Amino acid sequence: MAGPRVIVAGAGLSGLACAFDLVRAGADVLVLEASPKIGGVVDTIERDGFLFETGPTTIQAGSRAFRLLCGDLGIAGRLVASSAATDARFLFHAGKLRRLPSSPKDLLSSDLLSLRGRLAAASEPLRKWKPPPAGAPEPDLESFLVERVGAEAARLFGGAFVRGVYAAELEELGARSAFPILWKACEEHGGLVRGLFAEGRGKASDLPGPEVGRTALLSFPGGLRELVTALERALASSVRTRACIESIDRTPTGWRVLSSGGAIDEADHLVLAVPAPAAARLLEPVQREIPIATLRSIRHAEVSLVHLGLDASEVEDLPAGFGFLVPPGEAQAPRALGTIFVSSLFPDRAPEGSVALSSFYAQSEVLGLDDRQAAALACEDLARALARSRVPRARTFDVRRWTDVIPRYAPGHAGRIEELLRAAARVRGLHLAGSYVAGVSVEQVIARGRAVARELLEEAST
Questions:
Q1: Is this prediction's pTM over 0.90?
Q2: CATH 3.50.50.60 in the chain, residues?
């Protein structure tokens, strides 16, 4: 019996992971991607001997879905761990870079917080969390963290962290929706520290690739593009690029898709692995059955990445470490949300005697700037972070500007998505795999894509 015919809209990691599993199961798969290349924001570029990631830089070693996919693709043996320098992470605070505490003991002795702030954070394990009453609105992340660790730690540490993950502010995100692991830790163990301690740090030795701690950071010698290349090779002729979907229609047996140039394709199943705005547009023909208003209401971040390649002599005072984040409300702060010290993580990413850095900005901060001006701003921000007047000069630079890339999981998002998925499940042959469903990280979008493939195959077999 022939496998199901499937059209996957979108060739980001979620769509590619889904298509990979479907092809392996014998399905007849066609992936349609509007852009000239696959991988979405994930790519690795070379500029004058420097290697830069156009999207995520590293993946945590405990990322199970990612590592299992690498194993299935036969590339897990190429995974490499970042250098030990990643243990040092910094915040820009009070006019300079300050190292983040790496343990509760370090937190208690750190002057990043006042004595009252340190006591509020340190007492978190002693205060049992009380979940909201049934039916109560989901609290925003700011309220949740303030209750748990106090206002100072919430703003300084939490505010910086969510800028690095979501390019958003604390009050814009729902506590359960945006960080379900933290919410679950409180539900199951009564607090953040107790819950995260119970999870343990451990080894990720049961996963393909190098045996390292769960919090180690992984990539490939040639960057994360190696993952995309392996998926592209595995899918071969199943992918069609420059194929912008113009409309979809239901047929008696499935779906008809009209794409660029008048191409018409039909399938039993349709997987939408595209951002929420694109999914809302495509689903208009079935809007009586699908609450597309939910999709239209999801705000997305607009982010620019500014990559710099510099002579090491230009930044001799750059500390060894992962990089730094900028908490909200800091006076005279860099305009960047944060900066990654790329060549501290992977020395081969820069020529000998050179340094590679990647800064990320809210699009509003670089609006109206051309690429050269954006690179100049990143150099100025670096000087500000290092608390010196001389601005370093870049040998080379690259700027990537992304829209609709990071959905913001606002309060109530999880509940609205649960309703959306229940509605979609009632429409035979329709499957939603966008990053607005189950998380924005590489690990989460891969896991969602593979889960959709399993659900689809189960449905096709009934």
A1: yes
A2: 5-41+64-72+226-298+408-460
Q: Under CATH, what is the fold of the domain 300-407?
A: Polyamine Oxidase; Chain A, domain 2 (3.90.660)
Numbered ranges of CATH 1.10.3110.10 in the chain: 113-199
- One digit per residue, the tens of pLDDT, for the chain of length 462 reads 478 999 999 999 999 999 999 999 999 999 999 999 999 999 999 999 999 999 999 999 999 999 999 999 999 999 999 998 788 999 999 999 999 988 778 888 888 999 999 999 989 999 999 999 988 999 999 999 999 999 999 999 999 999 999 999 999 999 999 999 999 999 999 999 888 777 655 455 689 999 988 888 999 999 999 999 999 999 988 999 999 999 999 999 999 999 988 889 999 999 999 999 999 999 999 999 999 999 999 999 999 999 999 999 999 999 999 999 999 999 999 999 999 999 999 999 999 999 999 999 999 999 999 999 999 999 999 999 999 989 999 999 999 999 989 999 999 999 999 999 999 999 999 999 999 999 999 999 999 999 999 999 999 888
CATH of domain 5-41+64-72+226-298+408-460: 3.50.50.60
Bridge partners (DSSP) listed for residue 263: 259
